[in-house]
Amino acid sequence: MVVKQAVILLLLAVILGLGVNVVSPTRIAYVGEYRSITKGGEPVIPPDADPGDPEFIALDMAIMDHQAGDVIFIDARDPEEFACGTIPGAINIPFDYLPDGDLRPYLDSAMSYPEEGQRIITFCSGEECDLSLHMGRNLQAEGYTNIAIFFGGAREWELAGLEMERREKCDE
After folding, report:
1. How confident is the model over 49-105, as pLDDT tens digits?
2. Assign residue 153 a region: left if phi > 0, alpha if psi is -120 to 50, beta otherwise?
3. What is the pTM of this model?
4. Cβ neighbours of residue 63 under 8 Å, at least 6 residues apart?
5. Measured between alpha carbons, how far apart are the two ends of the chain, in Å?
6. 23 three-class SS
7. What string of DSSP letters covers 45-113?
8. What are the chain's domains?
């Protein structure tokens, strides 16, 4: 009897949820349309991007900037994720652990005092992670001017078969 009531309640909740979603102005698609992450020709732009955000770049542009060499790649993930695999030469500035207050001295020292206008590219895990977006916004607020966000992140880099720098052997 209790199981029957639980199943009925569950079915009513599902039907109510689906019905509300159908008439909602901000409805959620039942089947997502996701782009192929390894194409690299178009930048991944998060849904919560704002007009004043730093530019978003695609995989092919991130590769060209990486090969040019005069770019600072910032991995905004936690140190554990960074150690498991990152874009070669990237530095780790874990966004969640940034200190309060004036960030400029901290960021300058973490990036080895970048030259004025030096290209800085932020990234994190990929489309499911918005730390790179927030890091880019913070860098922009601190006065850095040549910032780009590679929102495809380490996952897109690795899925494209590009080299990853690993400091530890980690479980997938």
Report:
1. 999 999 999 999 999 999 998 899 999 999 999 999 999 999 999 999 988 878 888
2. left
3. 0.75
4. 40, 162
5. 43
6. helix
7. --TT--TTSPEE--HHHHHHHHHH--EEEEE-S-HHHHHH-B-TT-EE--GGGPPSS--HHHHHHHTTS
8. 55-159 (3.40.250.10)
